[in-house]
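thought: user wants a sequence for this fold. calling inverse folding tool.
action: design(structure=
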């Protein structure tokens, strides 16, 4: 069987909600990405600082409308000068940034998030109600003691009796949605055709709430008695915060509620009250009818399960699709239609605005005419900007922003109006449609999108100078947290500089609740969540550097191939280049075989005595300060070929280094263990095995501290060291530790006052400067002074973690015994059972991880096999005691990355024995990170919007590494690999992120709708198929429809797509050629095929083949074209050497009936298989540019994909409605033969072959996310001689239905379990060898949510053991939101009647024998288990031990099989 494993998490944002979740005072944003839940906190960063940090990063992004000064010459200059000089006029505004707190993968597809504020939670914050696609709801709240979410209740309504009539469709066929009462009294889930599930929440009654009870005056507060009976009669010692839920049938509320459209709970009602939009006419019967919708308002009496209708408005336009509750003081509901907006207040009075010419033609309802706006409101989203002033923001389906302003007369709404926000005021900062809008603060919104990056948008008001202070007092929404003095300063600034630097002015006078004033809103982007959704297509190709010199320097650190995805929609279209690891940009490269370690340092020059007086202090200049901030020296430890150990010092130059001579540095003193600066960069410390050398800033020797145990006279050697100014920690080979402190620029050893410090055997340790105060005995807001917050972490040989707060060595402030058991939560009182298996931990490090926006300390433990466990420290809000031992806990983070096998990769035995220690880096490419040297080199990278991720470094194993910050290599690093080559490098950050998807991701914005992409190997270019929208024109030449000529002056024309082919050069990812298609012609597919171009010489050539569809309205038949292009070399444009390639048309074949939807190579003669309309035809390219058909096969409806197993003539064809066809093609004579079919009721999006040893499997992915494994077997009795394909199994991908697939070669280690099993199976019983098995392969799958996954075959023993392992993991691991991962992945046919995940008939003759695919998402959670449980589970699953499980998981999880990326 096979294993389905996810490479990257989903990136499309589907839902969001803003609420105080972590505590009552916090401001959190909860984001749902299909099946992935993320919790963010918000953080304000000054705009000046943010622009300075991002000037280099943002300059290439064309979609963002930041202040124009960032990208001009001044801004460029500022990026070199540092953050203080960005703008002459200081920008006092701040940007709101998102900081990730936690994320959870859920076994369900999220369809709604709402905030529930009434129930008391453990954290004091609000609760979160999550609805899932199959009519489930889970109530989540934050548990501060576990630092995680806690599921408090689960409600599910998917039982058959709730489905209504016998002919009701499965649940997945209906639009289900969640709504909550603004007063948090109840929530409603609309599911099925007309069912409403109501969940009631208990609210504290006002008269007995006793918030004003004063214990001093009124005596002790009376204890509230808990009720002991629940509604169903069972007793309970604890009262739940919710009552039993119940299901209402909407027609029981009112007989007119037969076809509900949408509902929302309204504000300002004493009882839960909702407004519902519905019709008595089925949506399929409305053609020709007008104004048949009704809006009704009902008040619920939840105790009696009854309702009272309050008002009803009939005759509403039929294109209304959403109800939005409007908050006080305006109240009522806003009904959104495709052509109009209608507001209905609490008395039933209505006001409407028509936004295009169709509004008055589509309805007789009274509307104010604003048709000159010409807006299309499908897919728009609306949220409140300022409820008091009656301003609401609307985001249209193309991303444009519009402002809705209500006019209020007293307390009565007298009307409202719309206006578009001008592009110069940020009206076009959102590139395309969004899916969710959540207000984060008074001046900030989050706009989540499934089609592009999600944005945090802030706004500010531009006002006349006279009315600025006045209006600020009038309108609370204008509170910028700026005091009056600052206001006056800002006015002075305006007088000085004028308003010329503003983003544009456009005044509009509107009478709002805050009085008459002239304001102009200006929007800008504060932050973004990177997204690669939806992945429309992908290609794999080599990205070569144009220059030979660059190719040489980048060799060994660049992957063979890259995955290039066409992603995004509309103006958010882009190319995403994905690689497994970091591919460093090499600045300098040289042979350095003896290097074993590097230490760079920025240090003060020693001040000459002539300058040491008071006079000289001001005239010293920058040479004697740290102001240069560049690293000046580098110490290198070396081991020559004879094993002789030395150390050398080098002076750093622009992009390299040169030997430093004439100093007191002693190279022969031995191998450097650690080096760094102390005493505020005045002293250089070099730790050797036998002594510590101190130097001044010019490498003049000031002190030598020998390693000598005065009691025993022994001279222990230093194993490892850690420096945190002013302390130095040494761990020695006799398992003792020594702590020294620098006082008055002299190192002095501290006395070990704690007897345990001397008696314990220590394995490893580190020092950490605690800037956040997380390890302080008492947490306070005041930051500690430098040197007073140094924390020492020591790990004993028995595995106990001791924490000391220096300089106090009398006793540890915290001791945790259980670190080698790697529990999920490590605390001081954690105790494992005797005999429980342990992990061997060889190194610990505490370091800040993050970026310039936010960073946080993490405890990183490195195991004996080079695996890494990352712990996040957190404190529980303890009320009884403030002891650190009770408050401090460590939570293990998810890390599925497994290190490479040590022995297999290293030739030199010594390198395995002494792996270099992990290296803390304060700033490499803007990241605070930790480097992991050794055989699996990589960085632990965390951005503010991700958790820490291990990203491998492309290339060989690393012996030594250090950060490297000089003028020629800013914020870079230097490292030496196992082959003895040293490189000075930078991590590329321009348009590139790493931790977002756990792989290197470079996004190239194309700002156009991207449909398909293909790689052309001979030219090294990529061909991209795009679409642009243009107004539809009726064909003038049509003879049958004379009346069309009269419609030539339509004003509001429909928009249709027109295709473009763009040629992209990967040397700088610029578009170098564009070919435009005919009007109404869209590109359906682009493939690079190896076609025969000459019948006489049989010459083959890689040519680009494009299939198109020309659709000119419903009255004319669809036709298609097949275009064949070659990429030819031309003379480049001046100054643009990359433009030396062009597309040249080779063939153009018109297909009169049907679109060309799929193309593939076929056979061995260089022909192509073309899916055209309801036929699949084999065609050959003739020399005169025509495509000659030689064979065909009739198809059913619409071919979505064709595939050929290369060179065999075996073909697969997927139909959008009628399943999969398995056919064969022969060349002597030319003909196509049908071998077998699947079920004829299967909507297939993509299909592929999967060779597995001597078997050939067919993998079909349907529209509901099911992966079906089919097989052709004519010997099976039920297959009718093979005419019906056998159905082996079905597996649900849940929220991520695959839309594209590709068969790729699979890379496996030589000792791979899978290959050994295949080789054994290939040898027959009598010793004869059968033909060699097919080379290992896997299928790469992409989905519309931005998730990438692989499907890889397993050997039979692997499958059996991994199946048992997943079953064990299901019962051993916690599953959030009370969801069952087994049900989530279950074969849908088993519960098709109840509308399970897919709800389809079996796709073929059932021959599965109850087997299913192995769920790699569960296996990726293997490291979440504690060490003892891992050993136990491995034994139950039939593995020899935990190491064997690691070996198998390393083969199948993540991008392991794609080593060439």
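)
observation: tool returned 1461 residues.
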């Amino acid at each position: 069987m096979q294993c389905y494993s996810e490479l990257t998490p989903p990136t499309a944002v589907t839902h969001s909600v803003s609420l105080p979740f972590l505590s009552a005072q916090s401001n959190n944003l909860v984001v749902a990405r299909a099946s992935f839940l993320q919790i963010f906190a918000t953080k304000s960063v000054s705009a000046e600082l943010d622009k300075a940090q991002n000037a280099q990063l943002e300059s290439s992004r064309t979609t963002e409308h930041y202040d124009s000064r960032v990208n001009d010459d001044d801004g460029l200059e500022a990026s070199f000068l540092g953050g203080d000089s960005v703008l002459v006029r200081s920008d006092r505004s701040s940007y709101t940034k998102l900081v990730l707190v936690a994320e959870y993968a859920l076994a369900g597809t999220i369809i709604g998030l709402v905030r529930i504020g009434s129930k008391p939670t453990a954290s004091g914050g609000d609760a979160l109600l999550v609805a899932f696609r199959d009519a489930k709801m889970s109530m989540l709240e934050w548990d501060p003691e576990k630092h995680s979410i806690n599921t408090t209740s689960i409600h599910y309504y998917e039982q058959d009796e709730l489905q209504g009539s016998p002919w009701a469709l499965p649940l997945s066929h209906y639009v289900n949605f969640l709504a909550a009462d603004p007063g948090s009294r109840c929530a409603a889930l609309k599911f099925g055709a007309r069912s409403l599930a109501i969940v009631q929440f208990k609210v504290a009654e006002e008269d007995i709430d006793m918030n004003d009870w004063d214990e001093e005056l009124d005596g002790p507060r009376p204890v509230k008695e808990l009720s002991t009976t629940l509604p169903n009669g069972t007793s309970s010692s604890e009262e739940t915060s919710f009552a039993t839920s119940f299901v209402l049938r909407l027609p029981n509320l009112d007989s007119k509620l037969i076809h509900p459209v949408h509902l929302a709970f309204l504000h300002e009602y004493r009882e839960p009250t909702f407004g519902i939009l519905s019709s008595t006419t089925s949506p399929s019967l409305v053609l020709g009818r007008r104004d048949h919708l009704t809006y009704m308002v009902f008040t619920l009496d939840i105790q009696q399960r009854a309702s009272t209708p309050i008002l009803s408005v009939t005759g509403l336009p039929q294109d209304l699709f959403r109800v939005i509750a409007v908050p006080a003081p305006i109240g009522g509901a806003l009904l959104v239609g495709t052509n109009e907006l209608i507001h209905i207040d609490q008395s039933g009075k209505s006001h409407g605005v028509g936004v295009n010419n169709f509004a008055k033609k589509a309805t007789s309802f009274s509307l104010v005419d604003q048709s000159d706006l010409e807006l299309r409101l499908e897919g728009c989203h609306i949220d409140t900007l300022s409820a008091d002033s009656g301003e609401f923001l609307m985001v249209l389906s193309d991303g444009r922003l519009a402002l809705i302003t209500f006019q209020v007369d007293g307390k009565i709404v007298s009307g409202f109006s719309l206006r578009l926000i001008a592009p110069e005021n940020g009206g076009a900062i959102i590139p395309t449609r969004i899916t969710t809008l959540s207000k984060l603060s008074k001046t900030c919104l989050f706009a989540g999108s499934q089609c592009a990056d999600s944005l945090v948008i802030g706004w500010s008001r531009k006002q006349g100078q006279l009315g600025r202070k006045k209006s600020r007092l009038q309108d609370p929404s204008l509170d910028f947290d700026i005091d009056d003095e600052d206001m006056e300063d800002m006015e002075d600034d305006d007088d000085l500089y004028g308003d010329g630097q503003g983003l544009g002015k456009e005044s509009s006078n509107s009478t709002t609740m805050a009085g008459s004033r002239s304001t102009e809103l200006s929007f800008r982007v504060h932050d973004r969540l990177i997204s690669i959704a939806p992945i429309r297509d992908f290609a794999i190709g080599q990205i070569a550097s144009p220059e030979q010199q660059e190719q040489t320097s980048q060799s060994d650190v660049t992957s063979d191939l890259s995955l290039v995805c066409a992603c995004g929609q509309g103006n958010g279209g882009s190319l995403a280049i994905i690689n497994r690891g970091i591919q460093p940009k090499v600045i300098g490269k040289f042979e350095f075989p003896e290097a074993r370690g590097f230490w760079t340092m920025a240090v003060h020059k020693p001040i000459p005595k002539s300058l040491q007086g008071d006079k000289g202090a001001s005239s010293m200049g920058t040479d004697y300060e740290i102001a240069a901030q560049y690293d000046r020296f580098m110490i290198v430890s070396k081991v020559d070929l004879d094993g002789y150990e030395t150390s050398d010092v080098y002076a750093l130059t622009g992009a390299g280094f040169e030997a430093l001579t004439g100093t007191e540095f002693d190279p022969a003193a031995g191998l450097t263990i650690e080096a760094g600066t102390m005493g505020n960069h005045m002293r250089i410390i070099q730790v050797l095995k036998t002594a510590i050398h101190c130097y001044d800033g010019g490498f003049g020797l000031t002190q030598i501290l020998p390693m000598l145990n005065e009691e025993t006279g022994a001279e222990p050697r230093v194993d490892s060291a850690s420096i945190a100014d002013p302390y130095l920690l040494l761990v020695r080979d006799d398992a003792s530790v020594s702590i020294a402190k620098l006082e008055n620029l002299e190192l002095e050893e501290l006395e070990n006052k704690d007897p345990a410090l001397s008696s314990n055997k220590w394995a490893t340790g580190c020092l950490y400067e605690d800037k956040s105060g997380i390890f302080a005995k008492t947490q306070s807001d005041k930051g500690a002074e430098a040197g007073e917050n140094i924390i020492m972490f020591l790990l004993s040989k028995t595995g106990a973690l001791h924490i000391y707060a220096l300089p106090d060595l009398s006793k540890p402030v915290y001791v945790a015994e259980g670190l080698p058991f790697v529990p999920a939560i490590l605390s001081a009182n954690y105790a494992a059972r005797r005999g429980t298996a342990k992990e061997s931990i060889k190194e610990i490090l505490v370091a800040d991880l993050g970026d310039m926006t936010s960073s946080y300390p993490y405890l990183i433990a490195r195991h004996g096999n080079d695996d890494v466990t990352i712990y996040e420290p957190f404190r529980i809000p303890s009320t009884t005691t403030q002891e650190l031992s009770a408050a401090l806990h460590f939570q293990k983070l998810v890390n599925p990355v497994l290190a490479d096998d040590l022995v297999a990769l290293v030739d030199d035995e010594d390198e395995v024995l002494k792996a270099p220690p992990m290296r803390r880096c304060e700033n490499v490419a803007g990241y605070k990170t930790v480097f992991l040297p050794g055989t699996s080199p990589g960085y632990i990278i965390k951005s503010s919007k991700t958790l820490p991720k291990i990203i491998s470094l492309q290339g060989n194993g690393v012996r030594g590494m250090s950060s490297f910050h000089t003028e020629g290599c800013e914020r870079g690093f230097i490292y030496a690999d196992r082959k003895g080559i040293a490189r000075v490098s930078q991590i590329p950050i321009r348009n590139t992120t790493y931790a977002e998807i756990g792989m290197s991701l470079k996004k190239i914005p194309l700002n156009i709708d991207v449909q398909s992409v293909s790689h052309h190997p001979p030219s090294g270019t990529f061909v991209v198929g795009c679409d642009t929208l243009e107004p539809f024109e009726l064909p003038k030449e049509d003879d049958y429809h004379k009346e069309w000529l009269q419609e030539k002056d339509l004003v509001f024309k429909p928009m249709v797509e027109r295709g473009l082919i763009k040629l992209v050069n990967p040397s700088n990812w610029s578009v170098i050629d564009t070919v435009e298609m005919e009007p109404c012609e869209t590109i359906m597919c682009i493939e690079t095929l190896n076609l025969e171009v000459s019948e006489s010489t049989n010459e083959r050539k890689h040519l680009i083949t494009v299939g198109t569809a020309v659709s000119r309205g419903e009255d004319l038949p669809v036709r298609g074209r097949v275009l064949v292009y070659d990429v030819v070399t031309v003379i480049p444009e001046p100054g643009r050497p990359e433009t030396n390639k062009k597309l040249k048309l080779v063939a153009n074949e018109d297909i009169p009936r049907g679109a060309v939807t799929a193309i593939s190579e076929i056979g061995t003669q260089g022909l192509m298989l073309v899916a055209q309309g309801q036929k699949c035809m084999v065609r050959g390219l003739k020399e005169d540019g025509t495509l000659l058909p030689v064979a065909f096969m009739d198809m059913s409806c619409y071919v979505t994909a064709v595939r050929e197993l290369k060179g065999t003539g075996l073909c697969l064809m997927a139909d959008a409605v009628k399943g999969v066809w398995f056919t064969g093609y022969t060349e002597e004579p030319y003909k196509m033969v049908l071998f077998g079919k699947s079920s004829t009721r299967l909507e297939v999006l993509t299909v592929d072959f999967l060779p597995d040893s001597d078997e050939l499997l067919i993998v079909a992915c349907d529209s509901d996310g099911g992966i079906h494994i089919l097989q052709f077997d004519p010997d099976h009795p039920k297959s009718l001689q093979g005419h019906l394909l056998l159905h082996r199994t079905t597996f649900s991908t849940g929220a991520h239905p695959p839309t594209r697939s590709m068969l790729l070669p699979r890379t496996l280690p030589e000792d791979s379990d899978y290959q050994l099993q295949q080789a054994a199976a290939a040898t027959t019983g009598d010793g004869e060898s059968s033909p060699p098995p097919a080379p290992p392969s896997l299928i790469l799958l992409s989905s519309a949510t931005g998730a990438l996954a692989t499907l890889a075959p397993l050997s039979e023993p692997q499958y059996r053991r991994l199946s048992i392992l997943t079953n064990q993991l299901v019962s051993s691991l916690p599953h959030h939101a009370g969801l069952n991962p087994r049900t989530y992945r279950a074969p849908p046919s088993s519960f098709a009647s109840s509308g399970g995940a897919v709800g389809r008939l079996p796709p073929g003759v059932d021959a599965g024998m109850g087997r299913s695919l192995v769920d790699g998402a569960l296996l990726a959670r293997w490291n979440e288990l504690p060490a003892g449980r891992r050993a136990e589970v491995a034994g139950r699953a039939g593995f020899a031990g935990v190491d064997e499980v690691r070996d198998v998981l390393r083969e199948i999880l993540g991008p392991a099989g794609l080593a060439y990326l």
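thought: summarizing for user.
answer: Here is the designed sequence. The longest helix spans residues 1356-1372.
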